[in-house]
Amino acid sequence: MKTKNNRLDIVGKRLKAVDRHLVHLLARRVFLAKEVAMIKVEDKTPLYRKEVEEDRLNLVSEWANEEGINPEFARSLLYSIIGESCKQQMMIIDSLRLGKMVEKFTPTYQELQKNLLRLTEYWASRYERYTAGNPATSALVIFERNIIDTTLSGLGNREMCLDLGCATGKEIRRISRRFSKLLGFDISTPMIKTGKEKISLTKKTNVKLMVHDVENSWPLKDGSVSFIIMNNGTASDVKNLTFVFNEVVRVLKPGGRFVMSFYNKEAWTQRIFFPWPLGLVAGIDQDRDCLEVKLEKETIPIFAKPYTLDEVKEMVPRQLCLLSWHTYPTLMSVLPKEIVEETLPKGLIHRLDNELAQTDHGLGSYVIISGERV
């Protein structure tokens, strides 16, 4: 039999979870209000529209009545939220008046690339811990490693492995004993610098990293590569994916294999707004055609284009034969962190997500494919 204190503890935990979700929703409300200000600046629309705000207040009163809570309480709460939103919007307008740079609602590709370089500089020294506190991203790393290992198990020639968007080279260091040579390309100088320092500590003489944009010609001979990795959704970070696929075909040996992953346009996270913090480091914003990445208290947009599983299959050149395709993670991406980390039996969500990845439901956050050069 539960004591009064036990019952209070249970209800207290529920209140804490609700409060956390409320704060998450407030943060999202303010973020969207800032986006409204960006759009209004670009479209030269008046910042304040009394009739719109009044409609929102009236709607909240109706919804409160339906839920059985005091409509005036709900209305006054939303009024305070609108007030904070207006304050944030005015700060954007004031910054423009003072000639300061303000983020656009639809940033240019060049601006998104600058953001990418800023992010990589920040993350370089701590990149290999970036999944901490993000269970869905951590699960993706494990799942993709299993795909890489499975694809490698049937690979005959192991002369060279190429990692596209290698960051600090963590993945090719992991599999370094399986190849004679391993090479990583990344656009970020700080990432490559950090990666080289880590390689020197491990004394792995067969692993090399290079600052190189994968959308420029690869300094490799035709048919010189045995295995290609482009994981963690990196294939979606490329603007000219046709060029990348053509280079994959050119440098892969006959029988050479590859693993690539993309952000999924049809993921659950793209179809529904979930009113709680999700366990992903980053998520696609289809309204702005970019990837929103968490950076301390900021959310930074960088270029990324999501694809459906069918779109990915159609893009694969005829010289490449697909061996497997999955979307992952599904449940892990959308459940609140406390459910994934505390409530359910350890490993249950992982097992369910692994089973879902073997079906064609297509709701996982990433599309992961493996294939072979014919």
Could you explain the architecture of this structure?
With 374 residues, the chain is an alpha/beta fold. The protein has two domains: 4-104, Chorismate mutase (Chorismate Mutase Domain, subunit A); 114-373, 3-Layer(aba) Sandwich (Rossmann fold), CATH 3.40.50. It contains 13 helices and ten strands. It has helices at residues 4-43, 50-67, 71-97, 109-123, 135-153, 170-174, 189-202, 241-251, 268-271, 309-315, 331-334, 337-343, 348-356; strands at residues 160-164, 181-186, 207-211, 225-230, 252-263, 282-285, 290-295, 298-302, 320-328, 366-373. The protein has a seven-stranded mixed beta sheet, with helices on both faces. Strands 6-7-8 form a three-stranded antiparallel beta sheet. α8 (241-251) links the parallel β4 (225-230) and β5. α1 packs across α3 (71-97) and α2 (50-67) runs antiparallel to α3 (71-97). The protein starts with a helix and ends with a strand. The model has no long low-confidence stretch (mean pLDDT 90).
Task: List the keywords.
374 residues; alpha/beta; Chorismate Mutase Domain, subunit A; Rossmann fold; seven-stranded mixed sheet; three-stranded antiparallel sheet; 48% helix; globular
